[in-house]
Amino acid sequence: MSDTVNTILVIFSIICTSTSQLLQKRIANQLTHKSNFEILKFYSFWISLCLLGLGFMSWLALLSQWPLSVAHPTLSANYILIVIFAKLYFKETISTQRYIGIFFILIGIIFIITGNI
Amino acid sequence: MKPGNLIFIIISLSLGIAAQIIIKYSLLQIPPDLLDGEWVNFVNKFSVTVIFTLSIGVIFYFFSMITWILSLRNMPLSKAYPILGVSYPIIYIIAVLWSPLNESANPNGITGIILVSIGVIFVTWERKSL
């Protein structure tokens, strides 16, 4: 498979995974703490599971092409999406320190990819 | 932070790391000639070994997600999520040291992992508890 296909696989995988994570947080906010199995009653739990499945399939395809030590760090691109949505949708406060951390993470990913591809 | 939430996250982290290693290992059991652009072959010719090891990885992955959701009950997403970032240096180290994966470290990769780790510390560390 070409680098273009692999790049699409990475982006698709990251979008599916982060969307799934955000749905899971929404579910967690609605839990009443009565039972650990309560989550199974939420239809959005099963949607998040499907998204995770899609992300996972594209992840498998990518992982069959790239070394784990290169492919896995690219998943940390999730951070930028998650933190932006945590701020915009869940109204969580994001400190400057966290933005700096995210900057470091992204530079790190670029280093890892450019060192191997 | 309640200790209970931290335990769920640590369990989730361990399961997630194991899952990635097992899954990569299972994909290496596919003969290389099947991966040369033939999607039909890629899907149809998964051997029993591949499916078995892959299934174990998927089971780990699933329980990693369950414990993750349980840990999110009392933590904000922007605090809980970065903790999983510890998996990046750990998986990198295992990947390059465990010979069956046949991967090697390089200066850019190590620099990248250090930057990611520093980033994770910055993102995770909180002066006042939430």
Keywords:
heterodimer, A: 117 residues, mainly alpha, 5 helices, flat, B: 130 residues, 6 helices, 71% helix
Describe the overall structure.
The complex is a heterodimer of chains A (117) and B (130). Chain A is mainly alpha-helical and 117 residues long. Helices cover 74% and strands 0% of the residues of chain A. Chain A has helices at residues 3-30, 43-63, 68-74, 78-88, 96-114. In chain A, helix 1 (3-30) runs antiparallel to helix 2 (43-63) and helix 1 (3-30) packs parallel to helix 4. Chain A starts with a helix and ends with a helix. The model of chain A has no long low-confidence stretch (mean pLDDT 85). With 130 residues, chain B is mostly helical. In chain B, 71% of the residues lie in helices and 0% in strands. Chain B contains six helices and no strands. Chain B has helices spanning 3-28, 39-44, 48-71, 77-83, 87-97, 107-124. The chains are: A mainly alpha (117), B mainly alpha (130). Chains A and B meet through helix 1, helix 2, helix 3, helix 4 and helix 5 of A and helix 1, helix 3, helix 4, helix 5 and helix 6 of B.
Helix content of chain B: over 70%
Count of helices of chain B?
A: 6
Q: Care to count the β-strands of chain A?
A: 0
**Structural class by sheet pairing and helices of chain B:** mainly alpha
Oligomer: heterodimer
* Dominant shape of chain B: flat
| Fraction of residues in β-strands of chain B | under 5%
Q: Helix and strand string of chain A, N-terminal first?
A: HHHHH
DSSP E strands of chain B, number: 0
Strand pairing plus helix content of chain A: what structural class?
mainly alpha
Largest interface, chains and sizes:
A-B, 55 and 53 residues
Q: How much is the average pLDDT of chain A?
A: 85
Helix content of chain A: over 70%
Q: Which runs of chain A of at least 5 residues are low in confidence (pLDDT < 50)?
A: none
Distance between the termini of chain A: 14 Å
Question: What is the percentage of strand-forming residues of chain A?
Answer: under 5%
Distance between the termini of chain B: 7 Å
Specify the biggest β-sheet of chain B.
Answer: none
Instruction: State the low-pLDDT regions of chain B, or none.
Output: none
Order of helices and strands of chain B: HHHHHH
